[in-house]
Amino acid sequence: MILTILRIMYLRLRNNPLELLLVFVMPVIFFSIFAAIFSNGIATGSDKQLRMAVVCVEQTPVGTELREFLEANSSLQCTSLNDNLSTQRLNDVTVSSLIRDAQNSGRYDLVIKLPCDIPSDTTQAPVQVTLVTDGQNSMAVAMVSSIVKAFFSQKQARAFAAKLLRPQTNENDTVEVAAETSSLGTLAGIEMQKPNDSSFFHAAKTPSDFFSESQIQQLMTTDEYGVIRVGEMAAVVPSRWALQKSVDLAQPQSLNAVHQEVPAPVEIDDDVSLVVENPQAMSQENPRIAMYAAGIAVLFLLFSATGNAAALLEEEESGTLDRILVSKAGLFHIISGKWLGILLLGCVQISVMFLWAEVIFRIQLWQHLDGFAVMTICTAAATSSFAMLLATVCKSRAQLNAASVVIILSMSAVGGSMIPRFVMSDQMKEIGKWTFNAWALDGYQKVFWYQSPVSSLQTEVMVLLGSAVVLGMLTLIFSQRWKHG
Amino acid sequence: MTEPLSPILTLNNVRKKYRGCEALKGISLQLFPGEMLGFFGPNGAGKTTMIRCISGLLKPDSGQIRMQISANSDATKTARLGLVPQNLAVYHDLTVQQNLEVFGRLEGVTGRPLQTRIAEVLDWAALKDRTRSLVKTLSGGMQRRLNIACSVLHRPSVLLLDEPTVGVDPQSRERIYTMLDDLTAQGAAVLLTTHQLDEVETRCHRIMVIDHGTIVADGKLPDLVRQTIGRPHRVFVRFDQPYHQELAAFSFDEHRTSAMCPIDSMQELPQVLAVLKQLDREPSQIDVRSFGLQDVFLALTGRSLRE
After folding, report:
1. Which residue of B has its CA nearest to A324?
2. What are phi and psi for residue B248, nearest 5 degrees?
3. Cα–Cα distance between A326 and A198 in angstroms, integer?
4. Which of A326, A458, B82, B151 has the fewest C-beta atoms lying within 10 Å of its C-beta?
5. Are B39 and B192 in contact (CB under 8 A)?
6. What is the arithmetic mean of pLDDT over A280-299?
7. pLDDT tier, B148 (very low <50, low <70, confident <90, very high otherwise)
8. Could you tell me the pLDDT band of residue A95, with boundaries at 50, 70 and 90?
């Protein structure tokens, strides 16, 4: 008996290709989607470069050097925003505009603003580098901050070494020995000078050029602020330290003695400050919640829309559709009436979601009511057309259910309803643009995150309304099967 | 019933290919006001296709369908056509009243006239006590009556019913035919398809038999019997053992265990019984019966299964 029951189950499954699709193909599809997102996106750190835009308020040698330093970093993908602009100093309005446009494009994780008049020696004048973030990728700020600090550390070390290279003789006929361990741990500077002494050391590139391995080890262990790794990228080091000691050249062996002692660190007092700005965060409480609300709302909107459109197939199966078609209501009235009903229901559904988010999470709905209304109507219109098309193409309610689950979940996974789009790779983002979810979420993001005006939603509105029209036309074409068999 | 001269619905040589086969091969018929026409045929004969063509849900490949009372004489669908689909074409999650309201509005009946008409129809369909009940809570017979009621709110002059009594008990069936009789009495023309032979025999004014997309018989039952079988009655005799003597006017089967004598009227019965009196052996069964639609139908369409 049990075998017979199993056989019944097997036969039913075998005879139902859509169920087979759900059972076996759907998990594979989802696995592939998420694998693609995570393998090229957030999971692998090393594969995905941070996308960074650089604005140089004025083209200066140090600014150019910093930009090249950033471009040389394999973790970063740098784009200079003012390459095509005049080499003159940019005014504040232009700079703000460049930064805002870069942020609103969604193409960059971070924008870095380099000030004018960056001195070669930052110990001499203060430098303020501004990191402008939209708050979506918090790792970007930490990562770029450390890289910028490393640049200025190296810069300081070189400057410090250069100073020491200047001939200086003190009264005791000794030379200054200085070494600096930077956050990169790659620089050391030394000056040993004595009149008539042929031995003359220039700045060494690495500590190992000058110090013995044991000395390096000692340097490492004597750093009271943490381990400084020599020759490789270090963890963040709070500041740079230099060793400065007088050495009697008449007794070269005293050099070892210098470093066998615990050297007294001398702080190089530079004046580089990193300022992090988030223009969006200043005028809103919880933009991230608004994005979650939009993602979930669109996902469930798609499901509820197809559920409502499925009523058409139920009416066909029961004969109610025939009765209505014979009445004064024609096919166009039926299709357009249902389309409008689904659209209105969708608008109410999204509104309820955002109202709840407003009450509980303070997403500042009222401040963005115009943009919200535009995006909601366009999203609901496109969704309604999509659901109606599915209902007219499918032959039965069961077929529609299976198809809608596969399509909607796939669209939502790729389009950003399940995983934020900003953590996806560029390729995944491009693929996502074939879904309603992506365009809807991009639109809501502009409204709630970037505080963009309604006029900035042109592309999203055109795509969503264009889809609504095209899918609506296809719905009318496919629905002719009900009119003339 | 006296047939008026002017038909309200006329089909002229209607042909329709449907899903690769010719479902209608030149159907022609006329339906008159106040007439109830029973459309009868085996499964797949073309009944539903014809109803869908008349109601405008299918477009005929050729031929004409004309509603006489329509302002546009070429229109295949007019405001006065009503369709009762084979399935329960009502919203099961709405109440009786709500269903009547929405289908009335879809037919263009609104406001006070709609409320008046709903009250009339509820009374007519014996659903007055269930106006606030959800359809899914009604019995099968009530649902069938509501199914019909939803199609008459706009007082159609032609009502098409596709097997309106499927799955209902005899009482509900009787009630449904009483409702249809009321409609024809008011001048509406009713065309119904059914497999219930007794209903067609006893309730319909005229019968049409369709087979393979062609109308193979059209008329009242006695005419059909005469056209297809010949004499309308017969006397049937059965024997336990083969009977080898001849009986006047009776014809035997090949095993000679049964014999039949067709007669035109009951006046001939005494003569036949007189023949049977002469039998030297008692038959096991004597049966006097009139030919019915079943006999006509089988005579016209054969006994082989169609599906």
Report:
1. B106
2. -65, 130
3. 110
4. A458
5. yes
6. 72
7. very high
8. confident
Banded model confidence at residue A464, pLDDT cuts 50, 70, 90: very high
Whether A171 has a pLDDT exceeding 70, the answer reads no
Give the span between the Cα atoms of B218 and B211, in whole angstroms: 12
User: Closest partner residue to B86 among A319, A324, A329, by Cβ?
Assistant: A319
Could you tell me how many residues make up chain B? 307
Residue A60 DSSP one-character state: -
Q: Do residues A325 and A331 make contact, with C-beta atoms less than 8 angstroms apart?
A: yes
CA–CA distance, A474 with B53 (Å, rounded to integer): 25
Q: Return the number of other C-beta atoms located less than 10 Å from residue B278's C-beta.
A: 9
Alpha-helix runs per DSSP H in A362-425? 369-393, 397-415
Mean per-residue pLDDT, B28-56? 89
**pLDDT in the model for residue B203:** 85
Token pair for A364: 């500042």
Burial (CB < 10 A; 0-12, 13-18, 19+), residue A294, is: buried
Q: What would the DSSP string read from start to end of B106-167? A: HTT--HHHHHHHHHHHHHHTT-GGGTTSBGGGS-HHHHHHHHHHTTSTT--SEEEEESTTTT
| Cβ atoms < 10 Å from Cβ of A401 | 17
Q: Whose CA is closest to A411, among A394, A434, A388?
A: A434
The CB density around residue A241, as the number of other CB atoms within 10 Å, is 23
How far is the alpha carbon of B108 from chain A, nearest alpha carbon, in Å?
A: 7
- Rounded Cα gap, residues B210 and B53, in angstroms: 15
Neighbouring residues of B302: CB distance < 8 A, sequence distance ≥ 6: none
Please name the residue that has the structure tokens 């070669």. A120
Q: Which residue has the tokens 């229109």?
A: B75
CA A453/CA A448 separation, integer angstroms: 10
Asked if residue A315 has pLDDT above 70, the reply is: yes
> Dihedrals φ, ψ of B274, to 5°?
-65, -35
| Ramachandran quadrant class, B111 (left: phi over 0; alpha: psi -120 to 50; beta: rest) | left
Of A320, A329, A485, the CB nearest to B90: A320
Long-range interactions of A101-104: CB distance < 8 A, separation 24+:
A102/A53, A102/A55, A103/A132, A103/A134, A103/A279, A103/A450, A104/A446, A104/A450, A104/A452, A104/A456
What integer pLDDT is reported at residue A242 of this predicted model?
38
Write the CB contacts of A418 (distance below 8 Å, at least 6 apart in sequence): A295, A299, A412
**CA A212/CA A249 separation, integer angstroms:** 18
Q: Is A47 exposed, middle or buried (0-12, 13-18, 19+ CB in 10 A)?
A: exposed
Beta bridge partners, A132, equal A111, A277
ipTM surpasses cut 0.90: no
How far is A43 from A425, CA to CA, in rounded Å? 11
Compute how many other C-beta atoms are within 10 angstroms of the C-beta atom of residue B113.
12
Contact between A242 and A179 under an 8 Å Cβ cutoff? The reply is yes
Query: Which candidate in B107, B114, B193 is best for mutational testing of the A interface (most A CBs within 10 A)?
Result: B107
Distance from CA of B178 to the nearest CA of A (A): 23
**How deeply is B99 buried, as exposed, middle or buried, from its count of CB atoms within 10 A (0-12, 13-18, 19+)?**
buried
Inter-chain CB proximity B90 and A328 less than 8 Å: no
The answer to whether residues B43 and B306 touch, using CB atoms and an 8 Å cutoff, is yes
- Nearest-Cα distance to chain B for A395, in Å, is 15
CA atoms of A337 and A352, how far apart (whole Å): 23
Question: What is the biggest distance separating any 2 CA atoms in chain B, rounded to whole angstroms?
Answer: 79
> Which residues of chain A neighbour B57 with C-beta distances below 8 Å?
322, 325-326, 482-485
Residue pairs between chains A and B whose CB atoms are closer than 8 Å: 56
Q: What is the pLDDT of residues A235-268, one digit of tens each?
A: 222 233 333 333 443 444 444 443 443 333 334 4
